[in-house]
């Protein structure tokens, strides 16, 4: 018997602060249209030192996990390129914060922005073999390029949490996906750096090439064409990137279908425009945005393109389920994004410099202004001090 597997619930967390891109553009002597139109970003999440990928993941996961789920989840797959330790997995810290049972498998996955997709596919295979299983998959990152750099406008951060089960409420995965890997130096972060190195134009070209490669391979393997899709969902380090990807395949569609695909893309990029780059979580925030803002129907097939610099790409698909809106809390997500506080450019620059230093010294962080359920209180004896309110 074939087991239907996919995303049963989706949660998302980003901190309570953001930077308006008009303010950043003016401070950097740029035309705001360069950021709003040329890059496709309106707001950028600002990550305070009291939040890291572990706390953001916990804040996202608690949105979707019931007490019964906490008892049933036996695997945590944590995709991130913002790991906090060169040995111990972020997933282990997360499993402890959530109170998961000791007989839980917890692993961190890294391949730039592709890590969460690797986790999703591994989780799906696991559940296909064990239909009663539940797997928690995380995509959490803090995108840092540095102040006054070319990549500054594509910073951001947050966490997406996905519960993968049989008979999912939201999105049932198709069994076939296509992937492509090549050793490419378009983006990387050496061990001695907290900010990434990137060749932006080259990375965009590689992204588009990998999309074309995996989309073509997918069509050959499945016999499907663009006519079979209600929407294409993209990894969005900045929203203009996905728009370029969509334009590559729009000529394959009829005029009427082109309008539908374009409208779906507009819905899929709304939340990303107001959060910024999540690295591993960007594709899944875009999927969530489409589910929240798009005109979807049960049975609609969505194509998803995941890309991680360095480089690895994957194209996969799935179908929207009848009760998909029950799998996320739309009102709470809207309130979280609406109630954030704008910071000035000067405040943003100060917060950017306040991340935990790499010298290992004890640090006590100013936790009073952080209202999230989980937060980072500081570091003692080389150990991060996590707290729950």
TrEMBL record:
Tree of life domain: Bacteria
Residues in Hydroxymethylglutaryl-coenzyme A synthase C-terminal domain copies: 176-259, 260-354
Keyword set, alphabetical order: Transferase
InterPro entries: HMG_CoA_synt_C_dom, HMG_CoA_synth_N, HMG_CoA_synthase_prok, Thiolase-like
Pfam families the UniProt entry points to: HMG_CoA_synt_C (PF08540), HMG_CoA_synt_N (PF01154)
Domain Hydroxymethylglutaryl-coenzyme A synthase N-terminal: 4-166
Family from the record: Belongs to the thiolase-like superfamily. HMG-CoA synthase family.
PANTHER family membership: 3-HYDROXY-3-METHYLGLUTARYL COENZYME A SYNTHASE, HYDROXYMETHYLGLUTARYL-COA SYNTHASE
Protein's name according to its UniProt entry: Hydroxymethylglutaryl-CoA synthase
Organism: Levilactobacillus zymae
Lineage: Bacteria, Bacillati, Bacillota, Bacilli, Lactobacillales
Gene that specifies this protein: mvaS
């Amino acid at each position: 018997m074939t087991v239907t597997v996919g995303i049963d619930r989706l949660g998302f967390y980003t901190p309570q602060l953001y930077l308006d891109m008009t303010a950043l553009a003016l401070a950097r002597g740029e035309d705001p249209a360069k950021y709003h139109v040329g890059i496709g970003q309106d707001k950028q999440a600002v990550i305070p030192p009291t939040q890291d990928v572990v706390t953001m993941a916990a804040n996202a996961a608690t949105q979707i996990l019931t007490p019964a789920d906490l008892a049933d989840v036996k695997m945590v797959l944590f995709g991130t390129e913002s790991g906090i330790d060169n040995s111990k997995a972020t997933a282990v810290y997360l499993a402890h914060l959530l109170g998961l049972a000791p007989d839980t498998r917890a692993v961190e996955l890294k391949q730039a922005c592709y890590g969460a997709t690797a986790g999703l596919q591994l989780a799906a295979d696991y559940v296909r073999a064990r239909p009663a299983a539940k797997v928690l998959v995380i995509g959490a990152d803090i995108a840092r390029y540095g102040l006054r750099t070319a990549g500054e406008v594509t910073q951001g951060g947050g966490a997406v949490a996905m519960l993968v089960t049989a008979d999912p409420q939201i999105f049932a995965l198709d069994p076939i996906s296509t992937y492509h890997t090549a050793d490419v130096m378009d983006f990387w972060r050496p061990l001695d750096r907290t900010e990434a190195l990137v060749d932006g134009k080259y990375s965009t070209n590689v992204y588009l090439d990998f999309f074309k490669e995996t989309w073509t391979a997918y069509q050959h393997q499945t016999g499907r064409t663009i006519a079979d899709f209600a929407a294409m969902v993209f990894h969005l380090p900045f929203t203009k990137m996905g728009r370029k990807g969509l334009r590559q395949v729009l000529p394959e569609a009829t005029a009427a279908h082109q309008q539908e695909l374009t409208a779906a893309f507009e819905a899929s990029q709304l939340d990303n425009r107001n959060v910024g780059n999540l690295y591993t979580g960007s594709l899944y925030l875009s999927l969530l945005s489409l589910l929240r803002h798009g005109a979807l129907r049960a049975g609609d097939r969505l194509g998803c393109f995941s890309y991680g610099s360095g480089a690895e790409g994957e194209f996969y698909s799935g179908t929207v389920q009848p009760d998909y809106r029950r799998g996320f809390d739309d009102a709470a997500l809207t309130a979280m994004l609406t109630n954030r506080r704008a910071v000035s450019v000067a405040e943003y620059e100060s917060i950017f410099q306040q991340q935990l230093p790499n010298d290992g010294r004890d640090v006590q962080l100013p936790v009073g202004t952080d209202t999230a359920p989980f937060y980072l209180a500081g570091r003692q004896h080389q150990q991060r001090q996590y707290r729950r309110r």
